[in-house]
Design a protein that fits this description.
about 160 residues; mainly alpha; single chain; 7 helices
């Protein structure tokens, strides 16, 4: 009668299983923790400092810089607001009793824009000059700069 146990020779026919660690990834080897552990254990650690690492500097390009190319093909000077236009803007603004900020508010521009136009640092934009002409009622473009604007109906 079987009792639930097997009778006879019982052998285990298992093959040995070897568990190996996976090879660490390169990014794991570069971490500060891995480098410190290697230094503590006495392993050789090579550190290489990359030039310009952690900065916003780049090495010089192998080709000619874009600025040099532009200088050879285009004029270097950018057109600025003419002295007579600057004077006309200032004179008309002061005559109306406005500050630069107030004029800027009336033409829907920043105060810095008006300041740049009056100091001659701005490159003249026709749209901005047109807004200033309408607000100051003074001609700022073409011939007769500084003259009062004519009424819309008559020429």
């Amino acid at each position: 009668m079987p009792t639930g146990r097997l009778s006879g020779n019982i052998t285990q026919d298992w093959e040995p299983v070897v568990l190996r660690r996976t090879k660490p990834k390169a990014s794991d080897l570069k971490s500060a923790k891995a480098v410190n552990q290697a230094l503590r254990s006495g392993a050789a650690v090579e550190t290489v400092r990359k030039s310009a690492a952690g900065t916003n500097k780049h090495s010089a390009p192998a080709v000619a810089p874009a600025r040099k190319l532009d200088e050879t093909t285009e004029p270097a000077a950018v057109e600025r607001v003419a002295a007579e236009v600057r004077a006309a803007i200032q004179k008309a603004r002061v005559a109306k009793g406005w500050s630069q900020a107030e004029l800027a508010k009336r033409i829907n521009e920043r105060a810095q824009v008006v300041q740049e136009y009056e100091s001659g640092k701005a490159a003249p934009a026709q749209a901005v000059l047109a807004k200033m002409e309408r607000a100051l009622v003074v001609k700022l473009r073409g011939k007769g700069v500084g003259a009062p604007l004519q009424a819309a109906g008559g020429k």
